[in-house]
Design brief:
- The chain has 747 residues and is of the alpha+beta class.
- Among the domains are: 172 residues, no CATH class; 59 residues, no CATH class.
- The chain is 32% helix and 22% strand.
- It is built from 13 helices and 31 strands.
- Strands 1-2-3-4-8 form a five-stranded mixed sheet.
- Helix 4 packs antiparallel against helix 5 and helix 11 crosses helix 12.
- The longest helix is centred in the C-terminal third of the chain and has 54 residues.
- The N and C termini lie far apart (85 Å).
- It comes from Wallemia ichthyophaga.
- One of its GO terms (cellular component) is nuclear pore.
- This is Nucleoporin nup82.
- It is found in: Nucleus, Nuclear pore complex.
- Keywords: mRNA transport, Nuclear pore complex, Nucleus, Protein transport, Translocation, Transport.
Length: 747
């Protein structure tokens, strides 16, 4: 159940929305993001934000907590919002324009004005805003940018451009292509082997149109340096290694990757494979060039600034992935919409989730992990990477779901949320991932749950979901926010998983409790135990069939039947067999009758127990000395729980108000000044420049001390000589005293 403040937030957002009936979006959208405790959403060409922490705490100084950002350059309809990793910059994209906004500081909620002035920068106007330019497919930030300002812009013509907003917003730092043209880096000029990834024909023009991309996230191999791209026809490509022009890379990652690659290169198994050996040599050259950029680091650094080495050549476009088994012919007509690659802790490989416009979701396993590869003649003979389709799931049967989007759960890596025109589905991979961790055979499927439904199934597209985000905050809680096209905000509280013991132990404990009965436990503590045991059902057909296959000698079958010892023995055996099975059938009938009597007794016990439970639930007194009974007590406990939760929220809000988790601007500047003085005087930090300044200051101080030591004896001797010359009878004039003081001052 949503809390009261979420209801107020929903009403405030809905009041600003339009009353018209929205249509099905013609492009993939994401019009809502969450920055810590701030909710930011877009409507047409307007961006608004509200502090959910202020709204929940009820301590906002403004009558209208929702603020509207005043952005002069924003004159286009917004389709997507992307927040960088420092949560200070917001990328806003439309159909052909990209804009970066500097978000206001967290104290904006205390301002009285309903509008906030924000600075903005237009990105790549020459490449995206001119008539005839390709439509934007996706805009996202790279997490390893040294300035947190590396913006990746993908267009439908399969061109990926990287803009460093802090340096140049007009020209891209680098450009890559996911199509196979020799003029673009990252591809081979000679075609690869004609493996068809999904069985499409050669005249399918959708294989040159890119719809989405995703950055890898694995820290144990080349996954963090991999860029996956999804084509409109469902083909998946990979570029590795990919880094921003000005990157900030963890030191341990490069060192570990270098050690693993060196171990593979020394493995004798790769000596006979020339392609693998040449690939490993290129990887070692690239990693060694990266390691050379670490020489100017101090011992406490965890990351280093670098740029991707260019000496190894242009990056090879890997793919398209060969999917096994391929999809059916009916599924080939649908367009791909979004892709998500995750690396669960239970698997040493990537799991791809690909969603299509017809509601189909493919869950695939990457059989071959992506490695760093560059264009070379040796790579012409290499086989394309392979992914195995684990399962195919249908979201909504017989309905177009628009352009669905994928969102990963921030708490559980095995949960993916799918937003589409019919609502939101949760795809949980945990069942078969846990089974895979325990055994090599997988029999379970993923669990698909519809958590949000925007309307009736026949009319679900009247209010499609245009954005989805998950909030995980210590003060706000753990919940999902879905935004519909008419600005209806749908909050859904999510539950955290509770670690349970193994199922076998629980079943054994329950079985023991049922066997012990009332002799070992009191009546109000023990669980209800059934009279029916776990006996196997009686199989009358298999256990009590009469075997009459044994007959007389085949040589005498045509003769007249005569009473012989053999005939008598045969008849005696048949009679004995029939008598034995008759007794067994009688015993089985008795067992069935006993079982039926036991089931009647068990049914009567269950009816009595249900009547007792109903009496306990409806009895006001309940033999407890209270007038409201257990129902009233449960209601009182629930009210106390709500009061305790509200009190805990107020206490947490007061603690957050009194405690400042980050330094203020003046404190930060003061500590920076202290660090600068320390580096200049002591030379203990700042790298080589700091050491050089420190040594220069120390040398100057030593030189001044030496000059002072030389001048001090001369001054003392002069003062003694002047004191000896002065007698009580001799008087010194004012002019002489002035000359002496001048000389002393000069010394």
């Amino acid at each position: 159940m949503a809390e009261a403040w979420l209801g107020n937030l929903t009403e405030a957002v809905a009041d600003l929305g339009s009353n018209g009936v929205p249509g099905l979006p013609s492009i993939k959208t994401k019009k809502l993001v969450v920055r810590n405790s701030d909710l930011i959403w877009a409507e047409k060409n307007v961006i608004r934000m509200v502090s959910m922490a202020q709204l929940k705490g009820g301590c906002s100084n403004s009558s209208n907590p929702i603020k509207t950002l005043q952005i002069p350059n924003l004159n286009f309809d917004i389709h997507s919002l992307a927040l960088n990793h420092t949560k200070k910059l917001l990328a806003v994209s439309g159909t052909h324009q990209v804009l970066v906004i500097v978000l206001p500081r967290p104290g904006y909620a205390n301002l009285v004005s309903p509008t906030l002035d924000s600075r903005s920068i237009l990105i790549g106007q020459y490449y995206h805003a001119l008539p005839g330019s390709s439509q934007l497919a996706k805009v996202d930030w790279h997490p390893w940018s040294s300035s947190a300002a590396s913006l990746l812009v993908l267009t439908r013509d399969s061109l990926l451009r990287e803009y460093d907003v802090s340096l140049d917003s007009d020209e891209p730092q680098q450009s890559l292509s996911f199509t196979q043209h020799s003029a673009m880096p990252g591809s081979l000029s000679t075609p690869l082997s004609n493996h068809r990834s999904r069985g499409f024909s050669a005249d399918d023009d959708r294989d040159d149109e890119c719809v989405s991309f995703h950055l890898g996230c694995s820290s144990s191999d080349w996954g963090a340096l991999t860029l996956y791209a999804l084509m409109r026809n469902g083909d998946v490509y990979a570029l590795c290694p990919f880094l921003p022009t000005h990157a900030l890379v963890p030191i341990n990652y490069i060192q570990n990757l270098r050690g693993v690659t060196e171990a593979k290169l020394l493995d004798p198994a790769h000596e006979d494979n020339g392609i693998v050996e040449a690939r490993l040599n290129q990887q070692m050259r690239w990693l060694n060039a990266m390691a050379k950029q670490m020489h100017s680091l101090d011992g406490s650094a965890t990351s280093f600034k670098c740029s991707s080495p260019r000496a190894t050549g242009s990056i090879l476009r890997q793919g398209p992935y060969l999917v096994q088994p391929p999809p059916s012919d009916d599924d080939e007509e649908a367009d791909a919409s979004d892709i998500l690659a995750i690396r669960p802790s239970q698997l040493p490989m990537d799991v791809f989730v690909v969603v299509y416009t017809n509601g189909r979701v493919d869950v695939c396993l990457a059989t071959d992990n992506v490695e760093g590869r560059w264009s070379s003649r040796a790579e012409l003979a290499a086989q394309p990477p392979v992914m195995s389709t684990y399962e195919t799931i249908q979201l909504v049967n017989g309905a177009d779901v628009g352009y669905p989007s994928l969102e990963r759960d921030p708490v559980y890596e095995d949960t993916v949320y799918i937003s589409h025109s019919s609502g939101v589905h949760a795809l949980v991979l945990k069942p078969w991932l846990d089974e895979l961790a325990q055994t090599e055979c997988i029999t379970r499927d993923s669990k698909l749950i519809q958590v949000v439904q925007t309307g009736e199934r026949d009319n679900a597209q009247s209010n499609p979901v245009v954005a989805l985000d998950i909030v995980n905050d210590a003060f706000l809680g753990y919940f999902l926010l879905a935004l519909t096209a008419n600005l209806q905000l749908l909050p859904l509280a999510l539950s955290l998983r509770v670690e349970e013991t193994s199922g076998e132990g629980v079943e054994e404990k329950e079985h023991k409790k049922g066997a012990e009965g009332a002799d070992h436990t009191s009546e109000h503590l023990k669980h209800y135990s059934s009279l029916l045991d776990a006996a196997h059902p009686i199989d009358l057909d298999a256990a009590h069939s009469i075997d009459l296959t044994r007959g007389l000698d085949g040589g005498h079958t045509r003769d007249a039947i005569a009473i012989t010892p053999q005939t008598l023995r045969y008849l005696g055996g048949v009679v004995s067999n029939v008598r034995r099975h008759t007794h067994a059938l009688t015993a089985s009938a008795n067992s069935v009758q006993d079982r039926l009597s036991l089931q009647i007794r068990e049914s009567a016990r269950q009816i009595d127990r249900l009547a007792h439970v109903a009496q306990v639930a409806t009895n006001p007194s309940n033999q407890a000395g209270v007038g409201s009974g257990k129902g009233g007590r449960v209601h009182a406990v629930s009210l106390d729980q709500l009061a305790l939760l509200a009190r805990m929220d107020r206490l947490l809000q007061r603690l957050m108000d009194r405690h400042q988790p980050t330094l203020s601007v003046h404190e930060t500047k003061w500590f920076e000044e202290l660090a600068r003085i320390r580096d200049e005087v002591g030379g203990s930090g700042g790298g080589k420049n700091g050491d050089a300044k420190g040594r220069a200051l120390q040398a100057r101080m030593s030189r001044l001390n030496h000059q002072l030591n030389i001048l001090r004896p001369q001054v003392e001797a002069y003062q003694l000589g002047q004191a000896a010359k002065l007698t009580p009878s001799s008087a010194i004039g004012a002019s002489q005293i002035a000359k002496v003081e001048g000389v002393l001052h000069e010394e």
